[in-house]
Amino acid sequence: MTMLKKILFPFTFLLSFLIFSSIVTKLKVPILEGQKFGNIPLERKIQKLIELEKSDGVDAIILGASNTEFGVSAQVLSETVTLATGKKFVAYNFGTGGADFYLLADLIKIVELHVKPKYYFLQGYHLSSAILESLSEDSLYKKLRGSPVGSFLDYKILLPVVDKVWNQKTLLALPSLRSKIVFSVYLTPPSTNSDVYPLNKYGDSISYNYLYLNQGMELVKLAEKFFLDKYLPISIDSYPPNEDAEKKKAFFTSNGLNVFLNTGYRKIQKETSFSETKFYIISFPKLAIESTFPKTGQSKELNRRFSSFFIEISKLLNIGYIDAYENTNLKSWHVQDDTHYNTFAAEIIGRKLAEKFLNKTLPNPPEPNDDALFELEKEKLMGRWTSIIRSPKDLEENILIVKYLQNANTHKLPPSSEKVNLIIRLEKNNSQIFPAQRIDSNSYQVEIPKNLLKANAMYAADLLNSANISLSAPLESYSWEKK
Amino acid sequence: MLFHTFTFLPFYILFIACYYSFSNPKFRVGVLLFFSNVFYGWWNWKLLGLIWLTIGLDFIISKKIYRANTKKEKFRFLLVTLIVNFSLLGFFKYWNFFMGSFHSIGLVAADRFVVENLILPVGISFYTFQSVSYSLDVYRERLKPVDSIIDYAAYVSFFPQLVAGPIERIESLLPQIVRFNKFDFDHFISGFYLFSQGLFRKALGDILSDLSDPTFKNVSNATPEDIILSIFYFTFQIYFDFSGYSEMARGLARTIGIELMLNFNAPYLSTSFQEFWRRWHISLSTWLRDYLYISLGGSRKGFVLTNFNLMVTMALGGLWHGAGLNYIIWGALHGIYLVAQRILEAIFESLFGISGIFRFKQSYRFFIWKRLFKNAFGWLITFCFVSYTWLYFRVYTVSDIEIVHKKLFLWIKHPVLPVYSFSVVFIFIPMLWIYDILQKDRKDFFRPDNTTILRNVFFGFLSGVFVILSLIFLVGKPTKQFIYFQF
Fold it and tell me: Is residue B375 pLDDT above 60, yes or no?
């Protein structure tokens, strides 16, 4: 009797979970895969992938984080390879914000539900502690890692925990259920950055924004100082020089590297169900802003070490390696914020990738005269916190009101008292400058002036409701039709 | 480390495993002390030095107070511990506030003394009060000093209630810590139930915060009805958040056979301000009563001084919550309510007199008055005023307070009901209200001494429902600290 009494409490406790799980299954609660890394679910991107597979068939998938999503043009890669070989070649950009190396295997699972790619171009992730610290603040991994005990634990312990705990379907359904309970609707499946930036049919996020680099700009100087004084020396020290065989050996046989490979690239190779699939690691700098600073001996050395690292790991994994950055000569207007390149750069990198993939030199198209445009817009800038939002070429009828000023702020947020200016520019039209107020001092969110348009006011109101959403999470955007 | 995060789970499992693997009570106290230090050091291990300074100081000084031969000598030692403890508290919590205030009233030089990046040690107000009360009790000869510093440290740093209370008294908590607590399944499941209930309260508080935050973050854009609604959201948020923490703390302690005091006893059902303070944050209000209000003279020195003591106690109670004018205003307002209530009661008494009341009591009218006026009207007044006063906890700047008041007056002139679509979350507020009505002034529903088959089935399932709902409300969004952690 006593035993029965004792068992009943845990039994009914667990029973409630069983009932709950079956309710979740029955309700067919939308599960947002991206929640697991506290970032962007892929619903819309998956939809585009399915459409492209149906219409053209997909040969290659480019996989990586947001710097891949913005920084490699699958469209240019597809068109260039098709033109050069005479055979139709279609690549799709499945890069998504926050997708760190240990999440690529999950992304591949999603891809292979819909297509059977012959090639995967995988973003080259740099093995450094910085990479692990750059995860979303809300991710379980980050929370574990950020805790005092977690900081003593190796990620070979933490990553499997994240994997096991977070992959449960019922757990992934919780955010949707929450929105249903609190707001009476299931969480609208947000997509990728394409909520803010348009997405072409090849999955590329189109962004013609660029970081304005006025030489007098204090922030850029700060960013450069940070890059030269801290980032460069630390990053260089993270990678062994080629010539130091002993150091190299110690580094490449370390536990850290094996965990990195096992939880990242090796896991990807295992997850792929098609034996014919070929893998390439593609690399470009971790910080896009690097391209805007003068090349120093140290920065050249860092890039050489990066390449050397990727060559080594591609050998270990027995897969190809393409340095898609080499000799690309990227400039200020190729960078949309400190981390990401824009579509101008993506096109160049996409072409470089095509060249190296085909292993032949292709004729370069004439470069647009961006210097002139750059100079033109420089005159119209009002203050230190200025972002230029340019209308995308392929959407000339529309202009996007972009949610954040990340591209104006490199390493520091504007103080709460400071006004932020948005320059909203229509292609072939005059720029307009609108003063805008930041919603609070903890985020980059900017309230769009209400005197603009009704749609904009709605946008601001929506932002208020989602004030807790982190910068990396997608927000709705509205387009403004030219009258 | 927060109770409602995933990181707490392995910590707690490890703690339970270690705690019960020792059969010697002394080792168990050691385990408890070790884990309590890990728990506290999780935020910032450097701050462990501070808590140990308080522990060491009060441990030594209390012995000295006890051994001192004269009252004067005892007082001198007491003064040392009071000065050091409150200086530490004052420095970390109030220094920058006072320097800033001095600067704003014209003492420009005060700005130079502002300490940049000053960390506010988590729970400093709670453990300081807990430790100081021990020295005061020894001084008042209510207690003998503790023999072992390990035992004393385990009492001050007892992790379930270390950072946000309940502020326990040594005579209640220490004997429970040092005795041999055999693993008892009934205690464990009863504690687990309390924890799950507290977790649910916290989770619901977080959801309410999601609903009210947009209004409070931008009061100038909010409509008057938004403000009204958000004040009520926050009223429940702070209650669920803090009572949730207290219930979790009680639950965790109970799993190892330790009973902590009840910190909340259906406060929003109070029909007067006095009653509210008997039911809200009971451990703090009794602390303030025993060690501040009574020390000031309490109610023994006439009507005027009693009211003055009440005002001082409440204003200081407000300041205890945080370094800000808003907290002082919050405390002072509660002081005014209490004094006003006393004055009204005194007027009533002088009008009717004892015999008058007696006659009144017999009448039918009295019955109506008591039921309707005292209970319903008293409740409404208390609830509305308490809710309004929470505003000073949530809106920090003078300009925002001004905007909010303008909008409140606008709403009073032209009341409009907020138009909001129904949310299932609203069901949980009356549900917890009913829970409070049923629980009011009673022992816990599910106690170690009243487990039965039926109860185990019911409360086991209910625990599951609480945990599931908490997961739905908490998982996949940024973790919010408990509001009272900042105090």
Answer: yes
Decide: B275 and B387 in contact? Cβ < 8 Å.
no
What is the per-residue DSSP string for B466-482? Answer: HHHHHHHHHTTS-----
C-alpha distance from residue A400 to each of A337, A396, A424 (Å)? 17, 10, 8
With beta carbons less than 8 A apart as the criterion, state whether A303 and A235 touch.
no
Q: Hey, which residues 191-210 in chain B have their CB within 8 Å of chain A? A: 192, 207, 210
Q: Does B466 touch chain A (CB under 8 A)?
A: no
Among residues A384, A398, A402, which one has the least CA distance to residue A336? A402
3-state SS class at A93: strand
Q: In the prediction, which pLDDT does A261 show?
A: 72
Distance from chain centroid for Cα A437: 27
pLDDT band at A32 (very low <50, low <70, confident <90, very high): low
Q: At B192, which amino acid appears?
A: F
pLDDT of residue A196: 53
d(CA A459, CA A400): 12
| pLDDT band, very low/low/confident/very high, at B267 (cuts 50, 70, 90) | very high
Lowest mean pLDDT among A24-33, A405-414, B146-155, B166-175: A405-414
Contact A310, A265 (CB under 8 A): no
The mean predicted confidence, pLDDT, of chain B is 84
Strand order in A60-63's β-sheet?
A91-93, A60-63, A119-123, A278-283, A320-323
Q: How far apart are CA A207 and CA A209, in angstroms?
A: 5
Over 60: is that where the pLDDT of A447 sits? no
Provide the pairing of β-strand A431-438 with A446-447: antiparallel
What values do phi and psi take at A97, rounded to 5?
-55, 135
User: DSSP alpha helices (H): ranges in B90-223?
Assistant: 95-104, 124-139, 149-156, 170-178, 185-217
Please report the DSSP string for B341-380 in residue order: HHHHHHHHHHHHHHHHHHHHHHSHHHHHIIIIIIIIIHHH
- Cα-atom radius of gyration of chain A, to the nearest Å? 23
The count of other CB atoms within 10 Å of the CB of residue A417 is 7
Non-local (6+) Cβ contacts of B474 within 8 A are: B4, B202, B203, B206
Distance separating alpha carbons of residues B477 and B471, to the nearest angstrom: 11
Which residue's entry shows tokens 């409701």?
A465
What span, in angstroms and rounded, lies between the C-alpha atoms of A270 and B302? 83
Give chain B positions within 8 Å (CB) of A8.
Answer: 453, 456-457, 460
pLDDT above 60 (res B149): yes
CB A473 within 8 Å of CB A39:
yes
Our answer to whether residue B103 is catalytic in this structure is no
Q: Is pLDDT of B283 > 50?
A: yes
CB contact under 8 A, A439 and B217: yes
| pLDDT at A466 > cutoff 50 | no
The stretch A353-364 carries a mean pLDDT of 87
Q: Give Cβ neighbours of residue A1 (< 8 Å, ≥ 6 apart).
A: B453
The C-alpha atoms of residue A128 and residue A260 are separated, in whole angstroms, by 10
Interface of A with B in 156-185 (CB under 8 A): 165, 171, 174-175, 177-178, 180-184
pLDDT band for position A92 (50/70/90)?
A: very high
User: How high is the mean pLDDT of chain A?
Assistant: 65
- The DSSP code for A323 is E
Structure tokens at A326: 């080499």
Between CA A10 and CA B251 the distance in angstroms is 16
How many A-B residue pairs are in contact by the CB < 8 A criterion?
125
Tell me: pLDDT of A408 over 60: no
Q: Which residue, among A37, A57, A38, A41, has the nearest Cα to A49 in the 3D structure?
A: A57
